[in-house]
Each structure stands twice: as structure tokens, then as C-alpha cells.
């Protein structure tokens, strides 16, 4: 039994650490994307750097992909094990009286976010890999802004992004703060950390939604 408990704790810690890593990447990703709204040339420069810098491409990118896989696989494993471990059922479950909807449905919001990541990879990462390594195009440092705006021209794709970022916000609302608790950060700064995670869970998804809507409403005229 103690071995199972330790194993469960280890999984939660791995999930929390991978989640914190992904939150850091999310902030960095947003910092680049928002420049596409007010400084397209800067967006092109930053995107070109991220797309061709060897440290980013051959070290950080594989770590990021591994972090995504570890975080979501661990989440599904923990959910399955938790369901199996619930031998004693409540006579009457009172829903949100026992726990907020967000915390009770992390697996749902997580699954949607994972599906969204699949779309995001399909929209941006796969075409980038094909462009560079299979079609062997020369470097084009100014192509990124136009390619990004073009992706948001269809309303259906923009709507999917909006819904996905909304669910990402719900996932962050509970998961970001919980990650700090899981790794043992519980001190006089805890309230401040929790406040920061709540602000982050709202501001970053709303920021991404703003970027998507802005480019949808301001397409490039050819």
C-alpha cells in the first residue's frame, strides 16, 4: 500500500512539474504571438529565431514535446487510477458542493486542450517542418506574419481556437495553483502565488483569444 501511495505521489509531482514547465512555455509563446498585433516585423524576427535557432530546435523543442506527452499521459493515468481506487461511493453526490466543477472535470478540459494542441501542431508545427525539412525551402524571415494571419481567416478555425483557449483557462484556473501545492510550496507567499495563478489563468487565454480575433477581423488584403 505504501508503495502505491509513493507511486501516486511521484506521478502527481511529475505531472505538476511538467505542468509548470508548460505554463512557462505558454507565457513565452504568448509574448511572441502578441507582437503580431502591433509589431509584425518583430513577430517575424522572433518567429524566425525560434524556427531556426539550433538550441531551440534541437534541444528545447524536443523537451517541450516530451513535456506535453508526459503531462497529459500522467494526467490520464492518474484519473484512471483514481476512478479504480474509489471503492466507496457516496450515497448522493452533491456535485459542486463537494468540489468545484473545474477540479472535478480536469480530465475533460485536459482532453479538449490536448485535442486543441493537435490542431495547433497541424496548423503550424507540421507545415513548418514540411517547409524546412521536406520541401527544402530557403529561409524566408518575413513569411511568418502572413502565414499566421491566413490561419485565422476561416471563422470556424477562429471559433475552435476561442473555445479551446476558454477551456485552457479553466484548466489553468485549477491546475496552475494545484501544481505549486503538489510540489510542496505552502508558505506565507501561498496567497500571492494563488492570486498570480488566477490572474494568469484569465489573462493568457484572453490574450490568445484577442490575437485570434484580431487577425480574423483584420485579414491581409492581397
Structural class call reads mainly alpha
Largest sheet: none
Q: What general outline do the C-alpha atoms trace?
A: globular
Number of helices: 9
What's the overall average pLDDT, rounded?
82
Number of beta strands? 0
Helix/strand order: HHHHHHHHH
| Rg result | 20 Å
Strand composition percent: under 5%
Distance between the termini: 66 Å
Which parts are unreliable, with pLDDT below 50 for 5 consecutive residues or more?
1-5
Give the helix proportion (percent range): over 70%
Name the features.
0% strand, 80% helix, disordered N terminus, globular, 222 residues, 9 helices, mainly alpha
Secondary structure: elements and pairs:
Blueprint: H1 2-33, H2 35-38, H3 40-52, H4 54-85, H5 101-104, H6 106-134, H7 144-151, H8 155-182, H9 190-217
Helix pairs in contact: 1-4, 1-8, 1-9, 4-6, 6-8, 8-9
What does this structure look like?
By secondary structure, the protein is an all-alpha fold. The protein contains 9 helices and no strands. The protein has helices spanning about 1-35, 35-40, 40-50, 55-85, 100-105, 105-135, 145-150, 155-180, 190-215. Helix 1 crosses helix 9. The longest helix has about 30 residues, at about 1-35. The model is unreliable at about 1-5 (pLDDT under 50).
Amino acid at each position: 500500500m505504501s508503495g502505491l501511495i509513493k507511486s501516486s505521489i511521484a506521478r502527481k509531482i511529475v505531472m505538476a512539474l511538467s505542468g509548470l514547465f508548460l505554463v512557462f512555455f505558454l507565457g513565452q509563446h504568448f509574448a511572441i504571438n502578441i507582437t503580431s498585433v502591433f509589431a509584425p516585423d518583430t513577430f517575424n524576427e522572433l518567429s524566425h529565431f525560434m524556427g531556426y535557432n539550433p538550441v531551440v530546435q534541437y534541444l528545447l523543442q524536443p523537451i517541450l514535446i516530451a513535456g506535453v506527452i508526459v503531462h497529459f499521459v500522467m494526467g490520464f493515468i492518474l484519473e484512471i487510477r483514481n476512478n479504480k481506487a474509489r471503492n466507496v461511493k457516496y450515497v448522493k453526490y452533491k456535485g459542486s458542493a463537494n468540489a468545484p466543477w473545474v477540479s472535478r472535470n480536469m480530465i475533460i478540459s485536459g482532453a479538449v486542450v490536448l485535442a486543441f494542441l493537435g490542431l495547433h501542431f497541424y496548423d503550424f508545427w507540421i507545415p513548418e517542418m514540411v517547409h524546412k525539412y521536406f520541401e527544402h525551402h530557403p529561409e524566408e524571415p518575413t513569411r511568418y506574419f502572413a502565414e499566421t494571419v491566413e490561419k485565422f481567416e476561416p471563422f470556424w478555425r477562429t471559433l475552435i481556437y476561442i473555445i479551446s483557449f476558454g477551456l485552457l483557462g479553466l484548466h489553468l484556473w485549477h491546475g496552475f495553483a494545484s501544481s505549486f501545492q503538489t510540489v510542496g510550496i505552502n508558505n506565507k507567499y501561498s496567497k500571492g502565488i494563488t492570486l498570480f495563478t488566477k490572474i494568469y489563468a484569465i489573462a493568457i487565454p484572453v490574450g490568445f483569444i484577442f490575437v485570434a480575433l484580431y487577425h480574423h477581423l483584420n485579414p491581409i488584403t492581397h
